[in-house]
């Protein structure tokens, strides 16, 4: 996709999975670059990618400044490494659905600062285990059981009872060049030597999905062309393929419709879920989160966006 092509407010809302009013608010706060054609606000893909990269910080809707992960909250493994204050509640994960959730928490959770940490599923669960956050989000697929999240929660939170709350389902698959010139259709095609991949960062749900399928096929990741080329978002994976720098990448379906020059090969439905420790389940803030997730007001934020199956949102999936 041409990084200079004009995107409308609705285009950006669709890419970021937020309401149009939120896009205008981001522009007003100076967080999202834009320009005007007459009275119309327009954006470039580069503007949107820059916003996503710059958003990978601990964010507090009630504060004027953001605290960078690298400053206070990262350890040598790139995860969180600071116990939150008693009035802070950190929700960890990369989907922009969580930006909307913490915004609602700012309105309905009294005396609590709702914070966001933008790190992948695996590192989120490790941070939860270490007590650096109160809520992790995950979409990790276990190839041995064919199950999402529960096996990883049990492994990464050993001896800690946890509650898994469903957020949404999304479709994962391959991004390929328009017209699929290399005829890529299944995981088996990764065995081919004429294919170059663009990968997600270690610990991301899409990266784990790829690695699990490689493991089941008896393939080492190091044997794939481009396996070590990592990026931090679905959008960047798709745009990399669009400009011809790679042949294939794993990502969610919705982004494919926002980037020109690529097609999407659907492979499997994934479950994106919220994990908290059982010992805080009955606290006012967690009960408020449940009410928010189950409310018509919150669900209406996603009805016109697409890419989300919210039919089970707010349901308790498992107690581990």
TrEMBL record:
Top-level taxon in the UniProt lineage: Bacteria
GO molecular function, one term: DNA binding
Ranges for domain PBP: 110-294
Boundaries of every Helix-turn-helix domain copy: 7-54
InterPro entries (alphabetical): DNA-bd_dom_put_sf, HTH_17, PBP_domain, SinI_DNA-bd
Pfam family name, one: HTH_17
NCBIfam families referenced in this protein's UniProt entry, alphabetically: excise (TIGR01764)
Full protein name: DNA binding domain protein, excisionase family
Organism: Sebaldella termitidis (strain ATCC 33386 / NCTC 11300)
